[in-house]
Specification:
Largest sheet: none
Structural class: mainly alpha
Helix content: over 70%
Order of helices and strands: HHHHHHHHHHHHHHHH
Number of strands: 0
Shape: globular
Number of helices: 16
Mean pLDDT: 85
Distance between the termini: 19 Å
Low-confidence stretches: none
Strand content: under 5%
Number of domains: 1
Length: about 450
């Protein structure tokens, strides 16, 4: 599966994207760690609020992914006009999507009290949600120019911007959550403001890089207004909406699992938040590989080079498998140490350690499915993968998790076993799908 001639170019393209995505998710990790220092209830409140924030956010990010394969394919075919048109129409799509998502989240607030969660969790979570929801708009701006740059195989500056914004977020967390340097002690809401400010800076940095960057001067016409292409918008939506749906089905499954954890109590919800936070870190490293797979496959498709298309993709999948095995070992041997970074409650730490053992076993499946989904996006194949993800999670994994957790009284572990089954089924189906399609390119 690993082809030595592709390992180096795959790695050089993937590692900045991996670090960039890791940096993005580290915003949430830093929030969770520093919120956890204030107690289990604020940590559970952030978990509850993030259900309603992260699912729309991931949908928007998925919509923005339509830019990368089209730019990569056009770049492989040396079609400058198509690259410009993709940037222009992609910017419009992403801005409108961001505005719609913000309005949608604000409309959910009246229903949050009716979901069977502890009242103190809901009361703390709603103001925090209102603040972080606004960060969707700068995130969509950042995604527009990041996906454009990555489609042209320019991945390193996005990584630097994300890392710097994450450092800003951590510093603001320290100041605003705990009330240092004359600022009021804002607790959970302080984490929300830190996230919003950091993401605004992130969007501004990426926009300036693409607008003024010497390597992008041939494409500055993509910043002009008007003359939008209805057929291209339609094509991008046919890629972006199913890609966003993939994120909704997957993030929604983990979000619904958090609701089920809330039915088990504050302790279970806090443990789930820590464990899913750690699993998200590992996921994002291979998600970066998936984004790189999209670029490599799209570029080779534009060059009409089937052999290297398949070889680079399967090499990336193998690399992801090796990386996720290392994450699995870390979860197993660090199952008690890692949760202690978030909280000092021994009951929460013990339950989190149990969940991390289960999480270790689905790491390989998680890595394979996210990289293969990226390779399929490079082939602009997103509708069937969306259906596969829906069936794996919502038809099989979540009902199984509920059955194990409640009728069989396995509690939090039962919910995570169900998620593990869903990931394994998704990975298997994605591999079969890519192998079949890539042979026909």
């Amino acid at each position: 599966m690993l082809n030595n001639s592709h390992i180096r170019p795959n790695f050089l393209l993937a590692y900045p994207v991996m670090l960039s995505m890791l940096g993005q998710v580290m915003t949430g990790v830093a929030d969770s760690i520093m919120i956890g220092w204030t107690g289990a209830t604020p940590l559970a409140a952030s978990s509850f609020a993030n259900i309603f924030f992260s699912i729309p956010l991931f949908f928007g990010i998925g919509v923005s992914y339509a830019i990368t394969p089209l730019v990569a394919q056009a770049d492989g075919a040396n079609d400058t006009r198509k690259v410009i048109d993709t940037l222009k129409n992609g910017t419009l799509i992403n801005l409108v999507t961001g505005i719609i998502l913000v309005g949608f989240i604000f409309s959910i607030e009246p229903f949050m009290h009716r979901m069977g969660q502890p009242q103190e969790v809901v009361t703390l979570g709603i103001p925090y949600l209102n603040i972080v929801t606004l960060s969707i708009l700068p995130t969509m701006i950042f995604q527009t120019y990041r996906q454009f740059a990555e489609g042209l195989q320019r991945t390193r500056v996005a990584m630097i911007i994300v890392v710097l914004s994450n450092l800003v977020n951590i510093a603001l967390n320290y100041v605003l959550i705990f009330g240092h340097y004359g600022f009021p002690e804002m607790g959970l809401n302080g984490a929300g403001w830190a996230t919003l400010i950091a993401r605004c800076l992130m969007a501004l940095g990426m926009l300036l890089y693409v607008f003024y960057g010497r390597k992008f001067q041939a494409f500055t016409a993509g910043f002009s207004l008007g003359n939008y292409s209805r057929p291209l918008i339609s094509k991008m939506l046919h890629i972006g909406l199913p890609a966003g749906s993939q994120f909704i089905f997957e993030a929604g499954a983990f979000g619904f699992s958090a609701l089920m954890m809330g039915w088990l109590g504050t302790t279970a919800l806090a443990a789930h938040q820590i464990a899913i936070n750690l699993a998200t870190i590992s996921y994002m490293t291979t998600s970066g590989m998936g984004a790189a797979a999209t670029i490599r496959v799209g570029n080779f498709w534009g060059q009409k080079d089937r052999k290297n298309l398949r070889s680079s993709a399967f090499t990336m999948i193998g690399m992801a498998g090796v990386l996720m095995l290392l994450w699995a070992l870390l979860f197993i041997f660090g199952r008690e140490m890692l949760p202690s970074l978030y909280i000092d409650d021994p009951v929460v730490i013990d339950l989190t350690a149990t969940l991390l053992i289960i999480g270790a076993f689905f790491q390989l499946s998680d890595g394979i499915q996210v990289v293969t989904a990226g390779a399929l996006r490079g082939l602009q194949d997103v509708k069937v993968p969306s259906l596969l993800i829906f069936v794996s999670y919502w038809v099989i994994a979540l009902p199984m998790g509920y059955w194990l957790a409640f009728p069989l009284k396995m509690g939090a572990s039962g919910i995570w076993i169900g998620l593990s089954v869903g990931l394994t089924l998704t990975a298997t189906a994605m591999i079969v799908r890519f192998n079949k399609l890539s042979r026909k390119v």
